[in-house]
C-alpha cells in the first residue's frame, strides 16, 4: 500500500495538541480542582513539618532545662600542671591563689555561685584562700570535702582517694563524704585518713610551703595577679603604677624567686620601667 507524499511528510504539531488538551481540561474544571488539591496538599505537608519541628524544639528545651535544674551544675574550667618542674600558679576569680604541684589537676568555675566557692582537686597543691565569711571556699576530692573561710594550707589528694592536709594559717574543716565524720584542723596541724577515721598530727616539714613558692610558673596570667602573688611571698612590696597594664597576660617561669630578679624579668617581657623607693619596687611604662 502506498502513502501519499502529502501525509508522509506531515509533522505533528505537539504544541497545538497540548493547548487543545489544556483548554479542554480548563473547560471541564479539572485543571483548577487539581491545582487546588495539590496546593492544599502542599500546605498540609508544610504545616505538619512546622508543627513537628515546633514540638521537637519544645521537648528539647524542656529536657535541657530539666537536666540543668536537676544537676545544678555550671560549666567548669580545668588547669593542670603537666610540667616536670616548677609550680603552676593560678589566681581564681575571688583572688584566691592555687599553687599546683606536678600533675595536679584543678577544676573551677569561671564565676563562683552566690552561696559558696567550690572547686575540685586531684593531686598536690597549696591554697591561699581570700577571706569571705559569707561565702565559704569548698574543695571536693574523691573521699573528703574541705571547707575554709580564709586560710592557707597544703592539700595532697591522690587519685586513689588518700589525702593529707597541712594548715599553714587559719582553720580548716574536713568532712568525710561517705560517713559524714568531721574534723577541724588549725595552723601547724596535719590530718589524713586511715580506713574511715581521721588522724591528726603536727607538721614535721617546715619547708613544705616554701617548696611551693620557690620555683613559680604563670600561664596566661594577668600582670595584676602575678604581682599579687609576688607580694604574698615577698617582703618587698611591688606596685604597678600604670593600671592600664594590669590585664597584660604573662607566660613566665621564675627560676629564682628573688623579688628583684622577678621584677626585672617582668620589665623585660612587657617593656616596663622599675624604680626602687626604700623597700618598694614601682613598675611603670
TrEMBL record:
Keyword Repeat listed: no
Organism superkingdom: Bacteria
Single GO molecular function: sigma factor antagonist activity
Domain FecR protein: residue ranges: 91-173
Keyword Cytoplasm among UniProt keywords: no
Keywords annotated in UniProt: Membrane, Transmembrane, Transmembrane helix
Ranges that cross the membrane: 49-67
Name of the protein described by the UniProt record: Ferric-dicitrate binding protein FerR (Iron transport regulator)
Amino acid at each position: 500500500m502506498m502513502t501519499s507524499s502529502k501525509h508522509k511528510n506531515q509533522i505533528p504539531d505537539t504544541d497545538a495538541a497540548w493547548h487543545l488538551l489544556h483548554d479542554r481540561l480548563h473547560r471541564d474544571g479539572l485543571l483548577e480542582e487539581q491545582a487546588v488539591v495539590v496546593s492544599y496538599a502542599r500546605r498540609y505537608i508544610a504545616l505538619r513539618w512546622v508543627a513537628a519541628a515546633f514540638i521537637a524544639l519544645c521537648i528539647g528545651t524542656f529536657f535541657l532545662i530539666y537536666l540543668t535544674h536537676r544537676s545544678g551544675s555550671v560549666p567548669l574550667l580545668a588547669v593542670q600542671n603537666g610540667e616536670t618542674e616548677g609550680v603552676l600558679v593560678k589566681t581564681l576569680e575571688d583572688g584566691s591563689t592555687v599553687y599546683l604541684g606536678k600533675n595536679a589537676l584543678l577544676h573551677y568555675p569561671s564565676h563562683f555561685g552566690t552561696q559558696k566557692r567550690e572547686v575540685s582537686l586531684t593531686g598536690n597543691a597549696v591554697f591561699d584562700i581570700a577571706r569571705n565569711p559569707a561565702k565559704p571556699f569548698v574543695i571536693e576530692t574523691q573521699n573528703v570535702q574541705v571547707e575554709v573561710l580564709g586560710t592557707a594550707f597544703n592539700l595532697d589528694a591522690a587519685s586513689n582517694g588518700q589525702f593529707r592536709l597541712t594548715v599553714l594559717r587559719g582553720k580548716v574543716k574536713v568532712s568525710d563524704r561517705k560517713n559524714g565524720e568531721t574534723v577541724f584542723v588549725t595552723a601547724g596541724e596535719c590530718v589524713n585518713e586511715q580506713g574511715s577515721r581521721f588522724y591528726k598530727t603536727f607538721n614535721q616539714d617546715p619547708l613544705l610551703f616554701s617548696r611551693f613558692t620557690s620555683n613559680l610558673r604563670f600561664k596566661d596570667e594577668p600582670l595584676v595577679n602575678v604581682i599579687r602573688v609576688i607580694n604574698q611571698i615577698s617582703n618587698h612590696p611591688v606596685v604597678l603604677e600604670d593600671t592600664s597594664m594590669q590585664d597584660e597576660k604573662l607566660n613566665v617561669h621564675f627560676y629564682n624567686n628573688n623579688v628583684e630578679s622577678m621584677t626585672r624579668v617582668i620589665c623585660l617581657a612587657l617593656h616596663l620601667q622599675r624604680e626602687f623607693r626604700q623597700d618598694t619596687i614601682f613598675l611603670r611604662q
